[in-house]
Design brief:
Layout: H1 3-8, H2 11-17, H3 19-24, E1 39-43, E2 59-63, H4 74-79, H5 84-97, E3 105-109, H6 115-123, E4 128-130, H7 133-138, H8 161-164, H9 171-192, H10 223-226, H11 236-240, H12 251-257
Helix pairs in contact: 6-9
Family: Belongs to the glutamate synthase family.
Protein name: Glutamate synthase domain-containing protein
GO biological process, one term: glutamate biosynthetic process
């Protein structure tokens, strides 16, 4: 069963009454029900066969096959997962077709390296964008691919004091990386004639496939990814300010509000 057909069946009722009763312990659908913000993480295998139980979620996280440190079996690295572009477009289109896109945030990650990736993901419908491996490299990771062994040679993924002492990263390096990514995004938005990222979310008409004459790509059909089924009625900023799943301030907000 693919994601689209599964969503279509009684999706609206399920999204209202699904997870809220389980998380809050209260009556599902009640206006004063307090539930924890929850996101479903979709790690892509075969995107057309992805099945997800619809419930009262704050958003979806689509993780592509290009992400991660590579600290996995070689069979998983080479033969498992799929591109985030497929999962993102299918999720975005399915939510719009069922009138639910304005209720959730779509976050995507999996091999993001530059502002170009951010713009492409935004045009395909994403609201948030995750950088993992490249952010670690900015702080000194050498991709030794032994994160799970506690023997990271530069102390990024180790609790051993002698290895942690080798950690070369400083906060400024990571800050500079994201500043330059943001600067690249703003520059390309200006070239396209837009002021903010919200303006291009779901704008697949801005994307154009590259015509590359290769044996492995000559039969690829990207019409599904580039199809436009409509745009969200609200901006992603408006979605983030909704108090649909409010359970009071989270620990991060409490810690950040304390000047000490």
């Amino acid at each position: 069963m693919n994601l689209k057909s599964f969503f279509t069946a009684n999706l609206k009722n399920s999204c209202t009454n699904g997870l809220s009763a389980f998380v809050s312990g209260g009556t599902s659908g009640a206006s004063n029900s307090s539930c924890l913000p929850c996101k479903a993480d979709i790690c892509l295998g075969y995107s057309r066969d992805t099945m997800l139980y619809p419930c009262s979620l704050s958003g979806f996280i689509i993780s592509g096959h290009d992400g991660g440190t590579g600290a996995s079996p070689i069979s998983s690295i080479k033969h498992a997962g799929g591109p985030w572009e497929l999962g993102l477009t299918e999720t975005h289109q399915t939510l719009i077709e069922n009138g639910l896109r304005e209720r959730v945030i779509l976050r995507v990650d999996g091999g993001f390296r530059s502002g170009v990736d951010v713009l492409m993901a935004a045009a395909m419908g994403a609201d948030e964008y995750g950088f993992g491996s490249l952010a670690m490299i900015a702080t000194g990771c050498v991709m030794a691919r032994i994160c799970h062994t506690n023997n990271c040679p530069v102390g990024v993924a180790s609790q051993r004091e002698e290895l942690r002492a080798r950690f070369p990263g400083v906060p400024g390096d990571l800050v500079n990386f994201f500043l330059y990514v943001a600067e690249e995004v703003r520059g390309m938005l200006a070239q396209l004639g837009y002021e903010k990222l919200d303006d291009i979310i779901g704008r697949t008409d801005l994307l154009k496939p590259r015509d590359i004459s290769l044996v492995k790509t000559q039969h690829l059909d990207l019409n599904y990814i580039l199809s436009n089924v409509g745009l969200p009625k609200w901006s992603s900023t408006a979605i983030r300010t909704q108090e649909v799943h409010s359970n009071g301030p989270v620990l991060d907000e409490i810690l950040l509000s304390d000047p000490e």
